[in-house]
Amino acid sequence: MADLTALRFKNRLFYVLLAAGGLVALAGLYAVHMMESHGHIITGMNNQIVWGMPHVFAIFLIVAASGVLNVASIGSVFGKSIYKARAPLASLLSIAMLAGGLTVLMLDLGRPDRVIVAATNYNPTSVFAWNVLLYSGMFTLVALYLWTMMERRMNPWSKPAGLAVFAWRFILTTGTGLIFAFLTARQAYGSAILPPMFIVLSFAWGLAVFHVVQKVIYTWNEKTLDPAILQRTRNLLGVFVIGALYMVATYHLTNLYFAHRTGFEHFILVDGGIYPNLFWWGYVVFGNLVPLLLIYFPGLGKSTCVLVASLLVILGAFVLLYVFIIGGQAYPLDIFPGYQVSSTFGDGQIAIYHPSIYEFLLGFGGLAIAFIITTVSVRVLNFMPNDKPYIPD
Amino acid sequence: MSDTDAQRRQFLKTSLGAAAVAIAPGMLLFETARGNTEAASSKVRWGMLIDTAQCTQGCNDCVTACNKENGLSGGTAPTDSQWIRKIDLKDISSGHELSLPMMCQHCAEPPCVDVCPTAASFKRADGIVLVDRHRCIGCRYCMMACPYKARSFVHEPLTDQKPDVPRGKGTVESCTLCVQRIDKGQQPACAEACKNKAILFGNLNDENSEIAKKVRSVVSVQVRADLQLNTGIRYQGL
Ligand code: SF4
Ligand code: SF4
Questions:
Q1: Edge to edge, what strands does the sheet with B97-103 contain?
Q2: B89-122 per-position pLDDT tens digit
Q3: Residue A118, pLDDT above cutoff 80
Q4: What are the respective helix, strand and coil percentages of chain B, to the nearest 5?
Q5: Which class in CATH covers the domain with range B46-236?
Q6: Dihedral through CA B73, CA B74, CA B79, CA B83, nearest 10?
Q7: Which residues of B touch A132 (CB under 8 A)?
Q8: N or C, which end of chain A is more exposed by having fewer CB within 10 Å?
Q9: Distance between CA B84 and CA B190 in Å, rounded?
Q10: What is the share, in percent, of chain A residues with pLDDT greater than 90?
Q11: Do residues B57 and B99 touch, judged by C-beta distance below 8 A?
C-alpha cells in the first residue's frame, strides 16, 4: 500500500515537473512573440552589443551538448564499460541540449520566420552556414547512434556510429569556436586558440550536466551510484575542470602577449567593472576552484559534493560565456589605433548592456525544452545506466 | 449564377487583387534591394576619397544628408541606425585633432559578405556592398565581423520609408553608397552635401577620373589597412 502511495506521488511529481517545464517554455514563447512584434528594442541588445543573453544560453547548450558525448565516446570508442552503460543517457542529453540551444539561436534572429532562407540560400564561406550543417548532422548522427544502442539488432553498429559521433562533435565544437576565431578585427576574438578552448570547455560543461542529471535519475529511482563509479567520473570531472581552466588561462596569456590586445585584457581582467568581477569571482573562484575543492578535498567528493560541484561548474560556464560574449563586444573596437576617438555611435566608449527579462525568458525557454525532452524520454524509455557489478577496466 | 457563386467569385477577385497589391511592392523592393545588378560592371570600382583637412569638426552635413536621402530617423540612441557618423580623433602622442566621416568602407574583401550565412550581404560587380533585405535573417554576424562598425540593426518597426530605399525591422543595414542615386548617374547624398568638398566620389578604375588622379597624386590611406580588405573609401591626411 505504502509503495503504491509513493508511486502515485512520483507520478504526480512527474506531471508537475513537466507542467513546470512547459510553463517556462511557454514563457519563452511569449518572449519570442514580444520580440517579434516590438523588435529587438525590448531586449538590452543594441548596435554595439549585438549578441546578448540569448547567445550565452544558446552557446552553453550547444557546447555542453557536444561535451556530454564524451561520456559516450569513452564507452564506445575506448571500450570502458562504466561509460558504455551511460552512453544512451549521454546521447539523449546531447540531443535535448542541442534542440534547446538551436531553438534559442533561431528565435533570437531578427527574422526567425525566414529561417528556411538559411537552408535554401547557402553561403559556403560562412562559418555560420557550416554550423547549420554541423548541427543538423550532429542531430542525425546522435539519433542514429542512440538507435544502434537501444535496438538490440543494431548493436553491432554502435561502435562505428560512436566513432562517427566522436569525430563529428570535435568538428562541431571547432565550428563553434571558429564563429569567434574568424572575427579578426575584434580584440577579444580572432584567436586560433578558441576552437580547442571550446572543446576542452565542452568536456567539463557536458560532464557537469551529466553528473547532475545522473544524480537526479538515481535519486528518482531510489538507487545509489556505485561509489567506485562515482569516484571515477568525479575524478574525470576534476581533470576536465583543470584542463578548461588551463585553456582559458592560455587564451588570456596569449592575448596579453600581443601589444594591441593588452588594453582589452586589462579591461576584462582588471578594470572593466562587472567583467573582471564576474571573471575572477564567478568563473575562477566559484566555477573552478570551489568545485575542485569539493571534488578533491580529503573527506569531500561524496555524491552531494559532486552534485554541487557540477552545478557550480555549470554556473561558471554561464559566467564565462557572459564575460566572453558580452565583455568582448563591450570593449571598443580599435578602428584608429593610436588615436583617442569619439562619436555618436559609441566609438571609443565602453558599450553598456542591460539584459532584459525577454532575453532571460527566451534563454530559460531553451533550457526548458532540453528539460522536457530529457524528462519525457527518461520516463518513456529506459535510460537508466545499467551497470554490471563493477570491475575496473 | 447563384448568389453564393457570385459572392465566391467576388471574394476570389478581391483576395487575388489584395494579394497582388501585397506582393507588388515587395517585388519592387526586391529589385531595388538587389540594385541594378545588370548595369553594375566590374570595370567600375566606385570609391571615395575623404580629405580630412577639409572636414570641419562639428559639421554634420553629410550625416544629415544621408539620413534625409535614406529615410533614417537621425536618432543617436544605441539602438538607432547610423549609416554614416562623424568621428573626432585626437592623436595620442602629438595631440593633433581631426574629424572625419565614417561609413561602410565598401571593402573589396568584405568580412561581412564572407560571414553572412544566407548570402544576404553581397558585393556588386562595381564594388558596392549591400544587404538584400529580403534575404537577411537578422543573425547580426556581419555586425560582429565588420571591422568598422559600419552596420546597424533595425530594432523597431519602421514607418514612412523611402520607396527606393528598402529597410525593414529585424534586418541589418548599412551605407549603400547611395546606390539608388549612383544608378541614376548622381553622386551619393553625403558627397553632394559637403560644402567643403571633403568627399570626392568616383570610379577608382577609370584612370582619367578625378578620384583616380587624386589617389595617384596624394598620400591616402585605408583605415585598418593591416586587415587588407582593400576598401573603396580612402582617407587623405590621416
Ligand atoms: S566596411 Fe564593414 S559592412 Fe562595409 S563592406 Fe567592409 S565589412 Fe562590410
Ligand atoms: S554614400 Fe549615401 S548611404 Fe553612404 S554614407 Fe553617404 S549618403 Fe549615406
A1: A339-342, B84-91, B97-103
A2: 999 999 999 999 999 999 999 999 999 999 999 9
A3: no
A4: 30, 20, 50
A5: alpha beta
A6: 100
A7: 117
A8: N
A9: 9
A10: 73
A11: yes
**Mean of all residue pLDDT scores within chain B:** 88
A249 pLDDT more than 90: yes
Chain mean position to CA B60: 18
Nearest 5°: the CA angle B42, B46, B52 is: 155
At A154 the pLDDT is 83
Question: Exposed, middle or buried by CB within 10 Å (0-12, 13-18, 19+), for A151?
Answer: exposed
Close Cβ partners of B132 (under 8 Å, ≥ 6 residues apart) = B33, B34, B119, B120, B121, B122
Interface check B155 vs A, CB under 8 A? yes
User: Which domains are present in chain A?
Assistant: 20-380 (1.20.1630.10)
- Contact at 8 Å (CB) between A362 and A32? yes
Answer for the pair A66, A172: CB distance below 8 angstroms, yes or no.
Answer: yes
Nearest by CB: B144 against A50, A112, A114: A50
The pLDDT assigned to B8 comes to 52
- Looking at all shown ligands, the one closest to residue B198's CA atom is 2
Q: Of B156, B149, B182, which is closest to residue B83 (Cα–Cα)?
A: B149
For A134, the grid coordinates are 554541423
Q: Please state the rounded mean pLDDT for residues A225-232.
A: 87
CA–CA dist A333, A343 (Å, integer):
13
pLDDT above 70: percentage of residues in chain B: 84
B:48-77 residues touching chain A, CB 8 A cutoff: 76-77
The full set of domain ranges for chain B reads: 46-236
pLDDT at residue B22 tops 50: no
Tell me the C-alpha distance between B134 and B163, whole Å: 15
CA-CA-CA-CA torsion sign (B50, B56, B58, B60): negative
Residue identified by cell 557550416 is A130
Q: Is the pLDDT of residue A242 over 80?
A: yes
Which of B34, B155, B227 should we substitute to test contact with A (largest number of A Cβ atoms within 10 Å)?
B155
Which positions ≥6 away from A40 have C-beta within 8 Å?
A110, B79, B153, B155, B170
In three-state secondary structure terms, A357 is helix
**Cα–Cα–Cα angle for B194, A344, B191, rounded to 5 degrees:** 15
- Alpha helix positions (H), chain B: 3-34, 61-70, 111-115, 141-145, 179-182, 189-193, 210-217
